[in-house]
Model the fold of this input.
Amino acid sequence: MPTNQPNLVLTSARVLDPDTKTDAVLDVAVRGGSIFAVGSGADVPASAETVDLSGKWLMPGMIDTHVHVGGDLDGVTNPGIGLRSVVLAGATTVIDLGGSMERLVAGMREHGAGANVGGLGMMKPGVTLPDDDPWPSVVRSTLDTALTSGLLGLKMWGGYYPFSMDVTADIIAACNERQAYVAFHVGTKSSGSRLDGMRELPALLGENGRVHVAHINAYCRGSILSPADEITEALEILDGLRGRVVSEVHLARPNFTRGECDEDGNVRMDVARNCLRLKDYETTRDGMRRAIADGYGSVVRQSPSGLSLATGDEGVQLFNDADSLVGMSFPVNRADTAFQLTAAKRQDGSFIVDAVASDAGVLPRNVNVEQAMNMVRFGGLTPLEMAEKISFNPARMIGLEKKGRISVGMDADLTVIDPDLGRAVMSFVAGKPVMQEGEAVGKGGKLLVTAFGEAAAGGYDLPFEVVDLSRSLLYSG
Ligand SMILES: [Zn+2]
Done:
């Protein structure tokens, strides 16, 4: 191609760029993997492909900072299938919150649909850790193993595998020492996956600690106070840690958890117990069966195309067949909570919760664009604010300075939204289409690694990009 001409021109789109506050009908020209020009009425060279986006919205590619595409989830033998789901939902970059590099790479090779993917290592006693409450030296060697394998950092699943407060604080400190990414589903041995887990954040972080707090809405389900009071307090906690905590909220109603029960017939996971208690079911194997039979709890089942939910007799059957080792879902996420946490701003106009993320991927609730568009229709977000919450802020959270923006020289990662349908209908990664009208058309994907993982990434037979997390909002906020 000529060196000074675009090879792709997207014409007449309503361009939404939160960085420059641009909201106007413009043409966007792409050359190679980058944005070559943004303007109107430019002469399009005959050699360039053009896509008429009249009536469509064009935003920087959707970045989902909380997905599960490489993790270890009950009943999911091949999490790589989630890589197609995220692309179908309009994502161009995703962060897997808690798995292993081995599974992530295998999934990308087999099912990758063209998205950029970074991953965090899961802190799971008996699997990625030798024991419960690891010593500081074990925490650091676990982190180093994760980073040198190409992962961006660690994820603590406090609602599932909680540590003591001291160990939780130490894991955060270890990640901070390396400027590695660290995400936290709150809860320790002295709290739960609830508001009381969030209340521990100031003590866990001390003077200088930094952490990504996952799905704030999951701690505002009314387990401790009224949902409204929990929202107020959660926002106060986050605002009090401004500049040191990044966070996201998801907008799907169904949650996901695990059905696992112990030898005595008690439900093992704190998240699942909370779901049962919210509707006055016993936190036992029988209580779980009743919740499923009544249609409140659903069991996650895997099919070649993805996951779906089974409830009633069929759900109970699946639960029994797997001896309780199943993924579960309860409709416990409140729409009012999601709306308020997403829209909440400080006096200076900045959002208290940085981003909308899906906590989906392989789980059937990749609804960032659909639900954010519902909020736009209702007036809870402007179109530019939507692009801020699902692309610009997520890019800043990870330190991806060439993503989340539509201006010259930025990566040509773009998501096209049909405002009438209220969903993503097309997207591009590095100027190449990865999704077109309900079809995932990309392959493979680029790995996001830190400098520690560069050597390993060279051996995975996948393209990769080195991310400088010191530039992320987590460390520069
Ligand atoms: Zn998650």
